[in-house]
């Protein structure tokens, strides 16, 4: 079988969103630019594969250091024996990072090997996982990092052009009137709205009582209802998710920050979520997401993959969704030119549905010219220490 002859860490930075959007003002202290980190694996048959770890969005040099640490362990090994290579990486990293940063890096290696194997065999990655269970999947627009009506309307226009009928916005508990406005405006266009409360970044996170108060306040001011509420309480408190599910009539979901299948499966069995949101660039790779799908089938819980990284993270999650029989996937709406170029025509959306990709491997393109256009910028990092910003007052949204 093909041996691994080369490992390369690729850090690239691209313009991202715009300076006036909420996520940029809150989380990007150096402006609208984002970094992604990838592992490129080269096999002795000349084929290369690309995988991504979400860690690099936050700590790119940490990502690179762990890649460098892992590289000697991978060289000269069978590139098609992906379970064995993941086991090797875990033997190196689990003692000091069973959960957390190293799992993101293992995710990148695993997806890169899947990509290289698929390319070598001339088949899409989902074929390595048992084949696609459907030809298209309903997709929802993920954005709503907006502090102005024209920003919301721009995203709603994009959803309408693609036939997408579900829109996820970001709201915190003070955003009652803003959320009401978004629900009503979207409904006028035939679009339903879900809310991400972003508590995956909060320390300490909001209590369940605050989420209940927010949901009740919003629903008291509009006839529209939230489609689901995501990451509404602290990520380290599965019992709070379970309590919240008992106290509101809106589906509660989460899981994007969970870095092992074991932890996510324990939460699923405990009833923490109405549906779960694993991310292949976080949880240990595409095969780890497939473990979640297998248990979800048993428990009759839906899996809606999280897809908020760069192109390799997004496509890894999409291939898992097609192989696992996912019914809904995420479409990140904030503009990211590098990701758009790398995905090209393999992320086609028609009639509100993501079409099954057809290219071998993950279907990504990365050229030296693209790397030259998007050089790594050490200042382009996402900060979890949120900046204060001044959102419009309630009166702006009540008008």
UniProtKB/TrEMBL annotation:
Keywords (A to Z) from UniProt: Lyase
Annotated Mandelate racemase/muconate lactonizing enzyme N-terminal domain residues: 34-130
Coiled coil segments of this chain: none
Pfam families per the UniProt record, alphabetical: MR_MLE_C, MR_MLE_N
Every Enolase C-terminal domain range: 161-369
CDD domains: MR_like (cd03316)
InterPro entries attached to this UniProt entry: DgoD-like, Enolase-like_C_sf, Enolase-like_N, Enolase_C-like, Mandelate_racemase_N_dom
GO molecular function, one term: lyase activity
PANTHER family per the UniProt record, alphabetical: D-GALACTONATE DEHYDRATASE, D-GALACTONATE DEHYDRATASE-RELATED
Protein name according to UniProt: Mandelate racemase/muconate lactonizing enzyme family protein
Organism, as annotated: Bosea caraganae
Organismal lineage: Bacteria, Pseudomonadati, Pseudomonadota, Alphaproteobacteria, Hyphomicrobiales
